[in-house]
Amino acid sequence: MVKSKKLSNMIKVSILSAISLILMFFEFSLPIFPEFLKIDLSDIPPLLGAFALGPLYGVLIEFIKNILHFVLKGQTAGIGEMANFLVGISLVYPASYIYFKNKTKKSAFLGLFIGVVVMVISASLLNYFVFLPLYEKILNFPISAIIEWASKVNKNIKDINSLIVYSIAPFNFIKGVIVSFATILIYKRVSPILHK
Question: pTM of the prediction?
Answer without folding.
Answer: 0.93
